[in-house]
Every structure is written in structure tokens, then in C-alpha cells.
Specification:
44% helix; mainly alpha
Amino acid sequence: MGRLVGEHFCTHLRETRHRMLALILDGELERSSHSIRVEAPRDLADDPSGDRLDALFCAIQTAWAWTMRSERYGAPEHLDPLEGWIADPSLSEIQEPAGPASA
């Protein structure tokens, strides 16, 4: 039974990778906040480890950050520059923390 569950999970992951790659290659990122057109082989999602698709995701985020290099790589000014941040359009959704409450 455990093997069947494992096989089902692997099939689900593979199908999810293919759907994600199809969205990327069909222009979803170009229409989204990334505004980037991506070209990649469709068999990229066939890698069972997902490493090749992960590398594509990293390249997409890097490309987006490069387009935002004159704007702190997309990071809002209130983000701590000493912290590690993943450059992504979602950074713009992080709200500035409220100041100390007055007593």
C-alpha cells in the first residue's frame, strides 16, 4: 500500500510540474507581475528530481530582479538590507511595519 501512495504522489508531482511549466511557457509570466517571456524545452518538467524546473524558477526570479536593479531589485525601502531576501514581485506586497505604539 505504501508503494501505491508513493507512486500516486510522484505522479501528482510530475503532473504539477508539467502544469506549472505550461503556464510559464504559455505566457502567464509575461501577463503577470514578472512581465517576462520565457522560452524553455517542454521536457524540462520530466526531470523526476525537479532540479531542472527549480533552476528555471531561479533564472526567472533573477531575470526579474535584474530588470528591477535600479529600484533596489524590487525590494521596498523599508526591508532590512542585512537580511536575506528572495527577489520576487511579491516583495512589493510586504507592508512597512508600524512604528512603536505611543503610551
